[in-house]
Specification:
Layout (H helix, E strand, L loop, with lengths): L5 H9 L22 H20 L4 H13 L3 H13 L6 H13 L3 H14 L4 H13 L3 H14 L3 H13 L3 H14 L4 H13 L3 H13 L7 H14 L2 H14 L3 H8 L8 H11 L3 H14 L4 H13 L3 H15 L8 H23 L2 H8 L2 H8 L8 E2 L11 E2 L4
Antiparallel strand pairs: 1-2
Helix pairs in contact: 2-3, 3-4, 3-5, 4-5, 5-6, 6-7, 7-8, 8-9, 9-10, 9-11, 10-11, 11-12, 11-13, 12-13, 13-14, 16-17, 16-18, 17-18, 18-19, 18-20, 19-20
Length: about 425
């Protein structure tokens, strides 16, 4: 499990490779392959000659397949698909290489049902190769068919032990809510590839599901650190929500911001969850920071400016109510808490778990402070509010779900790693 649209999130979280075997070349001894101009010219001449032959016999299925494969190798996917389809229309039987190529083309275009059809055919043509089983498993994940995906990845693992395959098995178990098996397979992925960012993000999601937030934070951090330029937006988002759960609001805000900076489409994900309300105005963060530093009047002054420009923001109203309660301005606090309840139950917000917690905390505060105002026990109300545990409980709405590279932010598999899972 971006902001990113579902397709973009899937790419970010899943990070599917074009082939099953992944070779990571790093360091000063990395070999760079220099394009062979003569070979490229020969290929161009060959394609030209094939197309000339095809003009004479356009319905020749074998020739269409040969042209399609050449075009596929040159990354001309649309033209390659056209020639594959022409061959199929003329009753051609695709071989293993053609099934894999056409399956990849369909998957790239987001046609996962058709892609699965061709990868499944490939498994029947070469049942003892890992790659077609792995590719079919990926397509099942895109289609949210987790049990079928699991079975295909298990078949792939029979023929090649690979960190990518262990990661996908872990993701399947995560989606199936079998967290023990998920953690077991993700650990195996990390044993084979200790710097594998997607597996770190996914195992972070699994640990979070079983309440082990400290371990989740450790792996989210490793996912980010092992990603070039820290550009793993979903891991930042997962980390931010976990920090929020555990009470580290400053770190949460920092990683929410970093997620927005590195993920070109992550804003859409944040909007869907309600997190964007913290960042609609740059002064909101400033006001929350004053609140955390116990500079309550400064927090009120800043947040009043924000709420004047964005009066229907439940998050800002909540923190403004909290700041007033810390100053024992209980009538003003009640006013803003009531605003949160009203705004949070409107259609635009009521389905968002993040906002539900603001509403829940506001209702709790309204009940407590209304009783105190009615009874006139202002002094006792103040002492209760100043209790550190109560303050932290009010300050930090709990958001239990994480985003995975999970197939749900973007209906794709490796995305899902939860804020999405991979």
């Amino acid at each position: 499990m971006g902001s990113k649209c579902s397709k973009c999130n899937q790419k970010e979280n899943l990070g599917h490779s074009q082939s099953f075997s992944v070779v990571e070349e790093t360091g000063p001894d990395k070999v760079t392959q220099v394009p062979n101009k003569a070979q490229s010219l020969d290929d161009s001449i060959q394609i030209k000659n094939l197309k000339e032959l095809l003009e004479k016999t356009p319905e020749n299925p074998a020739l269409n397949i040969k042209v399609a494969l050449h075009l596929y190798q040159k990354n001309s996917l649309q033209d390659a698909e056209r020639h594959f389809e022409a061959a199929i229309q003329n009753q051609a039987k695709l071989d293993f290489e053609s099934c894999m190529a056409l399956g990849t083309i369909k998957s790239t275009k987001g046609n996962h049902t058709e892609a699965l059809e061709f990868f499944t055919k490939a498994t029947k043509l070469q049942s003892h190769q890992a790659e077609p089983w792995f590719k079919a498993g990926e397509e099942h994940l895109h289609l949210e068919q987790n049990q079928e995906a699991l079975e295909n990845f298990q078949e792939a693992l029979k023929f090649e032990e690979n960190h990518e395959c262990y990661n996908m098995l872990g993701l399947c178990y995560l989606n199936l809510k079998d967290y023990d098996n998920s953690i077991e397979f993700l650990k195996k992925a990390l044993e084979l590839s200790p710097e594998f960012s997607k597996a770190h993000n996914n195992i972070g999601n699994a640990y979070r599901k079983v309440g082990k937030d400290k371990r989740a934070i450790k792996h989210y951090l490793l996912a980010i650190e092992n990603t070039p330029k820290r550009k793993f937006a979903i891991a930042h988002l997962n980390l931010a929500t976990t920090y929020f759960d555990t009470g580290d609001t400053i770190s949460a805000l920092r990683h929410f911001e970093e997620a927005l900076q590195v993920g070109s489409h992550i804003h859409k994900v944040m909007v869907s969850k309600g997190y964007h309300l913290l960042f609609k105005n740059s002064q909101t963060k400033e006001g929350i920071e004053f609140l955390l530093r116990q500079e309550y009047q400064k927090a009120v002054d800043v947040l009043v400016e924000v709420v004047n420009t964005d009066p229907e923001n439940p998050a800002v109203n909540y923190y403004l109510g909290l700041a007033h309660s810390k100053l024992n301005n209980l009538e003003q606090a009640n006013h803003y808490y009531h605003q949160v309840v009203d705004l949070g139950t409107r259609p635009i917000h009521k389905s968002k778990q993040f906002i539900k917690h603001f509403v829940k905390k506001s209702k709790k505060a309204i009940k407590k402070y209304s009783q105190e105002l009615t009874s006139g026990f202002h002094e006792r109300a103040c002492s209760q509010v100043l209790d550190a545990d109560s303050f932290i409980e009010l300050l930090l709405p709990h958001e239990p779900s994480s985003l995975s590279n999970s197939v749900h932010l973007a209906p794709s598999p490796a995305l899902s790693e939860e804020a999405p899972d991979q």
